[in-house]
Amino acid sequence: MLPGIGMFGTGEITKVLVPILRDKGFCIAAIWGRTLKEAEEAALELQIPFYTGKVDDVLLRKDVDLVFITCPPYLHSQISVKALGIGKHVVCDKPMSLFQADALKMVRACQYYPSLISIVNHSLRFLPAIGHMKKAIQEGYLGPPEQLSLIDVKVRMCSLFHNKFDWLCDETMGGGALNLVGSHVIDLVKFLTERKAVKVHGAVRTYVKHIGQINGIRQITAPDFCTFQMELENGTLVTVNINCHISNNAFQQEVAVYGGEGHLTVRGGDLVGHRAGGEPVTIKEEMLYVDVQDLQFATSETTLPRPYVKGLCKMVGALRDAFHPTKEATGWIKEPVQAAATFEDGLYVQAVLDAIRKSSEERCWAKVQICTESPTNQKFLSAARMTSASALH
User: Fold this and answer.
1) Angle between the 100-112 and 343-362 helix axes, to the nearest 10 degrees?
2) Which residue has the higher pLDDT, 164 or 17?
């Protein structure tokens, strides 16, 4: 029997997730919205039997064993910690939190309840082309895995903003290209190399200040462009460029990894290998993986990029397999979700995001510092952001 699902959030990703979950055999038992009206509208659209504006009303339901947290990031820590404490499995959307202090609370909660699933939705890990790329790196396609020289990531996509001002327009609320796309890239690099960044240098910019042609009182503060470099523990240099100025819902993503014997490139969902060989030395190109899988769900109505949606499908499939235990095991098994990003990975991503923002402000290289204890002043900063959140509604 698969666990009942409780959804926290009524946004676009929720509307993509629910059909995927149902297709994999999960039952959606309840949905929570920031307001009762939001929850009711989402419940009617998605055909979910129970809706509420109170967090506890979902968490305390006996038919809810697994929660998906896709609401604004300033609520992630609060809901995750409470859910784990009650005994619910948790899948949290990116970015995991707004502060390292909040992310640390989530890490400690999952460490205190190791028998529960607690993962972050970095779905690119489950994209088949990325899995094949990591396998090729580990098998020495580019030479020794520890001697990778360069990783180059380019993402070009449409605007992340909707037709109305909401949390996506506010950087302090978790919106913008760096938080929403950069977090995926940072996690992806760690997944492929199994190395962490030690220092970063970045430039984060907001070029679109208003929604549409209307110059309202509120200005957009969330960045629509960012570029940054990361130096990894083994000296590998990573360059990332994220541009959210393409029209017509277009999406282009390219991940290239370079080593001493060639390079690997993932374009969209395909993996291409370039290997040096022969006399004289020539670069031979070969297709290592071609994405021929067609999504069973209509993606034309969503601005979520297809590679991320495909990765999400694979991640939900892995969760389904995790709850189909063998005869020797009961409850759930870890192997199917072994590749998923943990809360510890989410804390690391948050540390890198903080360092990139610091580097952009100070215009110099910044050291990545992972928080190990909660600073007292974080309480005041959290309170300030909660006040900002209330002002948006």
Assistant:
1) 170
2) 17
Percent over 70 (pLDDT), the chain? 88
Q: In 208-237, which positions are buried (b, 16+ CB within 10 angstroms) versus exposed (e)?
A: beebeeeeeeeebebbbbbbbbbbbeeebe
Beta carbons of 264 and 133 less than 8 angstroms apart: yes
Pick from 317, 302, 316: nearest CA to 16: 302
Q: What is the pLDDT of residues 204-248, one digit of tens each?
A: 999 988 776 545 677 888 899 999 999 999 899 999 999 998 877
Backbone angles phi, psi at 214, to 5 degrees: -95, 120
Name beta bridge partners: 27. Answer: 4
88-111 per-position pLDDT tens digit:
999 999 989 999 999 999 999 999
pTM (two decimals): 0.89
Give the residue from 124, 33, 123, 28 showing the smallest Cα distance to 75: 33
Non-local (6+) Cβ contacts of 282 within 8 A are: 276
pLDDT at 387: 44
- Rounded-to-10 torsion of CA 302, 346, 58, 53: -60
Nearest alpha-carbon partner for 123 in 187, 27, 197: 187
Q: Is the dihedral of CA 308, 253, 359, 367 positive or negative?
A: positive
Retrieve residue 116's tokens.
């529960």
The candidate with the shortest Cα–Cα distance to 194, out of 256, 138, 118, is: 138
- Is residue 332 within 8 A of residue 278, CB to CB? The reply is no
- In this prediction, residue 325 carries a pLDDT of 64
Residues 6+ apart with CB under 8 A from 358: 366
HEC letters along 145-168:
HHHCCEEEEEEEECCCCCCCCCHH
Place of tokens 């100025």: 245
Helix (H, G, I), strand (E, B) or coil at 308: helix
Q: Number of helices (H) and strands (E), helices first, in the chain?
A: 11, 16
Calpha distance 308→206 (Å, rounded)? 24
Q: Report the alpha-carbon distance of residue 146 to residue 366 in Å, rounded.
A: 24
Give CA–CA dist 266/132, Å, rounded: 10
Phi, psi angles (nearest 5°) of residue 367: -80, 140
Q: Are 39 and 52 spatial neighbours (Cβ–Cβ below 8 Å)? A: yes
